[in-house]
Amino acid sequence: MSEEVTYADIKFQDSSKRENIHEFDTVGIKVYTTLKIEMGKLNKLQNFKEELQRNISLQLIHNMNNSKMIMDLSNTLQEIATRLCHELYKREPEHKCKPCPKTWMWHEDSCYILIDNYETWQESVMFCSAQNASLLTIKNKSVLEFIKSKRLRRYWLGLSTKKYQRSYQELDETIISSNWLTRNRNVVNGRMHCGYIDTVYIYYTDCSFPMRFICQKLADPVKIESEIPDGKYS
Question: How far is it, in rounded angstroms, from Cα 106 to Cα 219?
Protein backbone atom coordinates (compact mmCIF):
# COMPACT_ATOMS: atom_id res chain seq x y z
CA MET A 1 0.00 0.00 0.00
CA SER A 2 2.75 2.41 0.96
CA GLU A 3 4.74 1.70 -2.26
CA GLU A 4 1.81 2.71 -4.48
CA VAL A 5 1.51 6.06 -2.70
CA THR A 6 5.18 6.70 -3.15
CA TYR A 7 4.92 5.90 -6.84
CA ALA A 8 1.98 8.30 -7.22
CA ASP A 9 3.93 11.07 -5.50
CA ILE A 10 6.87 10.65 -7.85
CA LYS A 11 4.64 10.74 -10.90
CA PHE A 12 3.08 13.98 -9.68
CA GLN A 13 6.45 15.68 -9.16
CA ASP A 14 7.68 14.68 -12.66
CA SER A 15 4.48 16.07 -14.19
CA SER A 16 4.98 19.40 -12.36
CA LYS A 17 8.51 19.67 -13.67
CA ARG A 18 7.38 19.10 -17.23
CA GLU A 19 4.73 21.79 -16.88
CA ASN A 20 7.31 24.21 -15.50
CA ILE A 21 9.70 23.44 -18.36
CA HIS A 22 6.90 23.88 -20.88
CA GLU A 23 5.95 27.23 -19.36
CA PHE A 24 9.61 28.31 -19.40
CA ASP A 25 9.94 27.30 -23.05
CA THR A 26 6.78 29.23 -23.90
CA VAL A 27 8.04 32.37 -22.12
CA GLY A 28 11.44 32.00 -23.77
CA ILE A 29 9.88 31.75 -27.20
CA LYS A 30 7.77 34.84 -26.52
CA VAL A 31 10.83 36.80 -25.31
CA TYR A 32 12.85 35.68 -28.31
CA THR A 33 10.04 36.59 -30.69
CA THR A 34 9.60 39.98 -29.04
CA LEU A 35 13.34 40.68 -29.15
CA LYS A 36 13.45 39.66 -32.80
CA ILE A 37 10.56 41.99 -33.63
CA GLU A 38 12.11 44.86 -31.67
CA MET A 39 15.52 44.29 -33.28
CA GLY A 40 13.81 44.43 -36.66
CA LYS A 41 12.21 47.73 -35.72
CA LEU A 42 15.54 49.02 -34.42
CA ASN A 43 17.27 48.07 -37.67
CA LYS A 44 14.55 49.83 -39.65
CA LEU A 45 14.97 52.93 -37.50
CA GLN A 46 18.74 52.79 -37.94
CA ASN A 47 18.35 52.48 -41.72
CA PHE A 48 15.88 55.36 -41.71
CA LYS A 49 18.28 57.45 -39.65
CA GLU A 50 21.16 56.75 -42.02
CA GLU A 51 19.01 57.54 -45.05
CA LEU A 52 17.85 60.75 -43.41
CA GLN A 53 21.46 61.74 -42.65
CA ARG A 54 22.42 61.06 -46.28
CA ASN A 55 19.52 63.19 -47.51
CA ILE A 56 20.42 66.01 -45.13
CA SER A 57 24.06 65.86 -46.24
CA LEU A 58 23.03 66.00 -49.89
CA GLN A 59 20.70 68.91 -49.16
CA LEU A 60 23.44 70.77 -47.31
CA ILE A 61 25.83 70.24 -50.22
CA HIS A 62 23.12 71.44 -52.61
CA ASN A 63 22.46 74.51 -50.46
CA MET A 64 26.18 75.26 -50.22
CA ASN A 65 26.53 75.02 -53.99
CA ASN A 66 23.53 77.32 -54.43
CA SER A 67 24.97 79.78 -51.90
CA LYS A 68 28.30 79.79 -53.71
CA MET A 69 26.58 80.36 -57.04
CA ILE A 70 24.57 83.23 -55.57
CA MET A 71 27.70 84.71 -53.99
CA ASP A 72 29.65 84.40 -57.24
CA LEU A 73 26.80 86.02 -59.16
CA SER A 74 26.56 88.82 -56.60
CA ASN A 75 30.30 89.47 -56.82
CA THR A 76 30.16 89.48 -60.62
CA LEU A 77 27.27 91.96 -60.61
CA GLN A 78 29.16 94.15 -58.12
CA GLU A 79 32.27 94.14 -60.32
CA ILE A 80 30.23 95.03 -63.41
CA ALA A 81 28.42 97.80 -61.55
CA THR A 82 31.72 99.22 -60.26
CA ARG A 83 33.30 99.20 -63.72
CA LEU A 84 30.24 100.87 -65.22
CA CYS A 85 30.18 103.47 -62.47
CA HIS A 86 33.88 104.21 -63.08
CA GLU A 87 33.10 104.93 -66.73
CA LEU A 88 30.18 107.17 -65.80
CA TYR A 89 32.33 108.91 -63.19
CA LYS A 90 34.92 109.80 -65.84
CA ARG A 91 32.22 111.63 -67.80
CA GLU A 92 30.43 113.07 -64.78
CA PRO A 93 32.52 113.30 -61.55
CA GLU A 94 29.45 113.82 -59.37
CA HIS A 95 27.37 111.03 -60.90
CA LYS A 96 24.91 109.51 -58.42
CA CYS A 97 26.53 106.08 -58.63
CA LYS A 98 29.80 107.40 -57.16
CA PRO A 99 30.48 105.62 -53.84
CA CYS A 100 32.17 108.67 -52.29
CA PRO A 101 30.65 111.72 -50.58
CA LYS A 102 30.07 114.82 -52.64
CA THR A 103 33.28 116.79 -53.41
CA TRP A 104 35.44 113.73 -52.68
CA MET A 105 37.50 112.19 -55.49
CA TRP A 106 37.17 108.49 -56.25
CA HIS A 107 40.09 106.25 -57.16
CA GLU A 108 39.88 102.44 -57.10
CA ASP A 109 38.48 101.50 -53.67
CA SER A 110 39.17 104.78 -51.87
CA CYS A 111 37.85 108.34 -51.62
CA TYR A 112 40.07 111.43 -51.36
CA ILE A 113 39.43 115.06 -50.51
CA LEU A 114 41.74 118.08 -50.67
CA ILE A 115 41.32 120.40 -47.71
CA ASP A 116 42.53 123.91 -48.42
CA ASN A 117 42.26 125.11 -44.83
CA TYR A 118 45.67 125.60 -43.23
CA GLU A 119 46.08 123.42 -40.14
CA THR A 120 48.87 121.90 -38.09
CA TRP A 121 49.67 118.27 -38.74
CA GLN A 122 47.89 117.16 -35.57
CA GLU A 123 44.83 119.30 -36.37
CA SER A 124 44.80 117.76 -39.86
CA VAL A 125 44.81 114.28 -38.31
CA MET A 126 41.87 115.24 -36.09
CA PHE A 127 39.92 116.75 -38.99
CA CYS A 128 40.31 113.63 -41.14
CA SER A 129 39.40 111.40 -38.21
CA ALA A 130 36.15 113.34 -37.79
CA GLN A 131 35.33 112.40 -41.40
CA ASN A 132 36.00 108.70 -40.66
CA ALA A 133 39.15 109.13 -42.73
CA SER A 134 42.91 109.52 -42.27
CA LEU A 135 45.70 111.58 -43.72
CA LEU A 136 46.83 110.38 -47.13
CA THR A 137 49.13 107.37 -47.29
CA ILE A 138 50.64 106.10 -50.54
CA LYS A 139 51.31 102.36 -50.57
CA ASN A 140 50.95 101.25 -54.18
CA LYS A 141 51.86 102.49 -57.64
CA SER A 142 48.28 103.15 -58.69
CA VAL A 143 47.68 105.57 -55.82
CA LEU A 144 51.14 107.05 -56.43
CA GLU A 145 50.31 107.91 -60.06
CA PHE A 146 46.88 109.22 -59.06
CA ILE A 147 48.40 111.59 -56.50
CA LYS A 148 51.25 112.67 -58.80
CA SER A 149 48.68 113.68 -61.42
CA LYS A 150 47.21 116.19 -58.94
CA ARG A 151 50.48 118.10 -58.62
CA LEU A 152 49.84 118.85 -54.96
CA ARG A 153 51.81 121.68 -53.39
CA ARG A 154 52.55 121.49 -49.68
CA TYR A 155 49.93 119.10 -48.30
CA TRP A 156 50.38 117.17 -45.08
CA LEU A 157 50.70 113.38 -45.45
CA GLY A 158 50.12 110.46 -43.11
CA LEU A 159 53.82 109.94 -42.39
CA SER A 160 55.36 109.05 -39.07
CA THR A 161 56.76 112.01 -37.20
CA LYS A 162 60.53 112.42 -36.89
CA LYS A 163 62.79 114.40 -34.61
CA TYR A 164 64.51 115.84 -37.63
CA GLN A 165 64.54 115.16 -41.36
CA ARG A 166 66.87 117.35 -43.36
CA SER A 167 66.86 115.92 -46.90
CA TYR A 168 63.92 115.55 -49.24
CA GLN A 169 62.80 112.28 -50.82
CA GLU A 170 61.25 111.51 -54.18
CA LEU A 171 57.63 110.42 -53.92
CA ASP A 172 58.29 107.28 -56.03
CA GLU A 173 60.68 106.00 -53.37
CA THR A 174 58.07 106.02 -50.62
CA ILE A 175 55.77 103.20 -51.74
CA ILE A 176 57.73 100.55 -49.85
CA SER A 177 58.61 102.90 -47.02
CA SER A 178 57.81 101.87 -43.46
CA ASN A 179 57.25 105.56 -42.61
CA TRP A 180 53.60 105.50 -43.62
CA LEU A 181 51.35 105.50 -40.58
CA THR A 182 49.08 102.61 -39.81
CA ARG A 183 47.39 104.87 -37.28
CA ASN A 184 47.34 108.64 -37.19
CA ARG A 185 47.59 108.92 -33.43
CA ASN A 186 51.19 109.95 -32.82
CA VAL A 187 51.81 112.36 -29.99
CA VAL A 188 53.42 115.44 -31.51
CA ASN A 189 55.49 117.99 -29.64
CA GLY A 190 57.30 121.15 -30.69
CA ARG A 191 60.45 119.27 -31.68
CA MET A 192 58.82 116.86 -34.07
CA HIS A 193 58.85 117.13 -37.86
CA CYS A 194 56.03 115.87 -40.10
CA GLY A 195 56.03 114.93 -43.76
CA TYR A 196 54.28 116.78 -46.58
CA ILE A 197 54.09 116.45 -50.35
CA ASP A 198 55.29 119.07 -52.80
CA THR A 199 54.65 117.95 -56.40
CA VAL A 200 56.74 114.75 -56.67
CA TYR A 201 58.82 115.18 -53.51
CA ILE A 202 58.38 114.63 -49.79
CA TYR A 203 59.78 117.04 -47.23
CA TYR A 204 59.63 117.32 -43.46
CA THR A 205 58.96 120.43 -41.44
CA ASP A 206 57.83 121.48 -37.97
CA CYS A 207 54.54 119.70 -37.23
CA SER A 208 53.07 122.90 -35.79
CA PHE A 209 53.44 124.66 -39.14
CA PRO A 210 50.00 125.29 -40.74
CA MET A 211 49.53 123.59 -44.09
CA ARG A 212 46.82 122.17 -46.33
CA PHE A 213 46.18 118.43 -46.25
CA ILE A 214 44.44 115.53 -48.00
CA CYS A 215 42.22 112.92 -46.37
CA GLN A 216 41.41 109.44 -47.61
CA LYS A 217 38.92 106.74 -46.65
CA LEU A 218 37.51 103.52 -48.00
CA ALA A 219 34.80 103.94 -50.64
CA ASP A 220 31.36 102.45 -50.13
CA PRO A 221 30.30 99.62 -52.46
CA VAL A 222 28.70 100.84 -55.69
CA LYS A 223 24.95 100.47 -55.40
CA ILE A 224 23.32 98.15 -57.94
CA GLU A 225 20.12 99.72 -59.24
CA SER A 226 17.38 97.30 -60.20
CA GLU A 227 16.04 99.68 -62.84
CA ILE A 228 17.33 102.63 -64.86
CA PRO A 229 14.50 105.19 -65.23
CA ASP A 230 13.54 106.10 -68.80
CA GLY A 231 16.44 104.09 -70.18
CA LYS A 232 18.95 106.70 -69.03
CA TYR A 233 22.21 106.27 -67.14
CA SER A 234 22.13 109.60 -65.34
Answer: 8
pLDDT value at residue 115: 95
Residue 203 near residue 195 (C-beta atoms within 8 A): yes
pTM above threshold 0.85? no
Q: What is the pLDDT of residues 187-197, one digit of tens each?
A: 666 678 889 99
Query: How is the chain split into domains, by residue range?
Result: 1-98, 105-218
CATH code for the structural domain at 105-218? 3.10.100.10
HEC string of the chain equals CHHHHHHHHHHHHHHHHHHHHHHHHHHHHHHHHHHHHHHHHHHHHHHHHHHHHHHHHHHHHHHHHHHHHHHHHHHHHHHHHHHHHHHHHHHCCCCCCCCCCCCCEEECCEEEEEEEEEECHHHHHHHHHHCCCEECCCCCHHHHHHHHCCCCEEEECCECCECCCCCCEEHHHHCCCCCECCCCCCCCCCCCEEEEEECCEEEEEECCCCEEEEEEEECCCCCCCCCCHHHCCC
Region at 204 (left for phi over 0; alpha for psi -120 to 50; beta for the rest): beta
Q: What is the mean pLDDT of each run of 10 residues along the chain (234 residues)?
A: 49 56 67 77 79 81 76 73 78 83 92 95 94 92 92 91 75 75 59 88 91 95 61 45
